[in-house]
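User: Let's play a game. I give you a shape written as tokens, and you guess the letters that built it. Ready? Here's round one.
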């Protein structure tokens, strides 16, 4: 009887009991015992059993159609396929070609007999269940390790190194990160200028400095503008490392993303300043605009949700803001927006007057902001949560103690009480931390308003268009135009 052997290992299994050499020896002995003559050998090293796109398997199927052998010998069914549907599909193709399948370690697997086919289906289901269980445990274990501070894999961000599998600050690179943030937020350099300065200082990117390849290619010696923007946006530099933002299907839902505390490189004020500057830059970039409209990117139509844009009038010095929905529909079925146009000269004059009032007397404007006090119970709630964690661990140890007397029902009852208490404390903690974050944001706002006042106070009397635009974006969150033409202005103070 002519037989072919098929062997496969995934990358993780190269050193396990299912290694290629081990499978080869077992299958050779099996063929001799059963009276088979091995005429073909097919091997797929380092390939997953969840896909049929394997060179050895594809060649085996072609040769089976050509009638080069009568039976395929495998070490175990999951070597052929790790998914039930794929296993059935492959077995059906082989049987239609007149080729049977036999397993060395599973005598019941024999597609040449009716009972063997039944056993084959049951075994395939359990093989898939085993794989899915292993994968889920691996994911759970990896996420648990990440919550304990273990690096979850992937490139180590610039400014950090791995120490004992944890991210630690690499001070030479961290100094570069601090320079980048300082150049951008305090010196108001563009990302392009920052890349030129890094090149002038002969500071190489991480990949180039370590001769590593990115997507198989040697990277450029120096930084790109886009790389600088990614650094400025990365929350890891304020100590918040986000794990699991993307998976094989794209971006992960936010509730599945873990935020792990790591050593910070820059303070939150500097990072927030960079975010604010990037937002303003995106709004005020001139591109092909004929003039710097003060409210560019700030006005929204309440009716259609589109932005208002500035349009120069026929008479010199006159201009209007008009909803984009009046000339561009969202889709063919959407009606033309009928929201009114706005007199730009009058609107800007009104808002500029308020801007000058704020920056001329910042303390008076800030005094109108509601005061937020952080409750003293915040550290108490954090300690109570930590105590509950310890209590739960002790309870579990007590239940699992072979010499203990705690019943399962008693354990579950006390555990449920702990979980209920934990849920209440976590809800309270969210409120307290929101309050603390609000207070910190209030302090950052106060510093920003005073800095703007000190920097531009002597220019408020005779501002140019670009200054008016920059300050409007600093002090106005958005302007909303209602259908009746009324305007709602949301100020930062």
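Assistant: Ready! My guess for every position:
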């Amino acid at each position: 009887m002519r037989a072919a052997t098929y062997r496969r290992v995934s990358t993780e299994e190269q050193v396990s009991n299912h290694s290629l050499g081990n499978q080869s020896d077992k299958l050779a002995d099996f063929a001799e015992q059963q009276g088979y003559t091995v005429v073909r050998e097919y091997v797929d090293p380092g390939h997953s059993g969840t896909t049929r796109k394997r060179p050895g398997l594809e060649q085996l199927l072609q040769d089976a159609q050509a009638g080069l052998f009568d039976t395929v010998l495998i070490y175990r069914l999951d070597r052929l396929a790790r998914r039930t549907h794929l296993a059935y599909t492959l077995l059906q193709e082989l049987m239609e070609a007149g080729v049977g399948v036999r397993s060395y370690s599973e005598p019941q697997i024999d597609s040449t007999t009716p009972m063997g086919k039944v056993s084959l289906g049951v075994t395939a289901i359990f093989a898939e269940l085993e794989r899915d269980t292993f994968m889920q445990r691996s994911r759970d274990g990896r996420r648990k390790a990440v919550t304990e501070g273990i690096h979850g894999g992937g490139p180590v961000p610039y400014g950090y190194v791995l120490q004992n599998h944890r991210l630690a600050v690499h001070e030479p690179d961290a100094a570069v990160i601090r320079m980048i943030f300082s150049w951008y937020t305090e010196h108001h350099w563009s990302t392009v200028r920052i890349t030129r300065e890094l090149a002038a200082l002969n500071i190489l990117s991480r990949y180039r400095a370590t001769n590593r390849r990115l997507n198989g290619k040697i990277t450029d010696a120096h930084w790109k503008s886009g790389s600088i923007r990614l650094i400025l946006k990365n929350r890891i530099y304020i100590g918040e490392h986000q794990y699991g933002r993307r998976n094989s299907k794209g971006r992960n839902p936010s509730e599945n993303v873990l935020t792990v505390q790591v050593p910070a490189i820059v303070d939150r004020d500097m990072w927030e300043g960079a975010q604010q500057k990037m937002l303003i830059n995106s709004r005020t970039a001139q591109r092909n605009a004929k003039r710097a409209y003060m409210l560019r990117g700030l006005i929204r139509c309440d009716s259609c949700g589109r932005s208002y844009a500035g349009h120069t009038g026929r008479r010199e010095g006159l201009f209007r803001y008009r909803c984009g929905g009046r000339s561009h529909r969202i889709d063919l079925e959407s009606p033309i927006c009928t929201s009114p146009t706005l007199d730009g000269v009058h609107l800007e004059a009104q808002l500029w007057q308020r801007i000058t009032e704020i920056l001329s007397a910042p303390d008076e404007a800030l005094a109108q902001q509601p005061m937020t006090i952080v409750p003293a119970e915040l550290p108490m709630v954090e300690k109570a949560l930590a105590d509950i964690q310890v209590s739960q661990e002790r309870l579990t140890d007590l239940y699992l103690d072979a010499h203990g007397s705690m019943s399962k029902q008693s354990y579950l009852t006390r555990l449920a009480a702990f979980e209920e208490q934990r849920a209440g404390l976590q809800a309270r903690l969210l409120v307290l931390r929101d309050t603390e974050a609000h207070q910190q944001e209030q302090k950052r706002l106060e510093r920003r308003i005073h800095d703007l006042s000190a920097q531009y106070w002597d220019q408020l009397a005779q501002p140019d268009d670009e200054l008016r635009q920059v300050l409007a974006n600093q002090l106005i969150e958005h302007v909303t135009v209602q259908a009746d033409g009324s305007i709602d202005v949301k100020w930062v103070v």
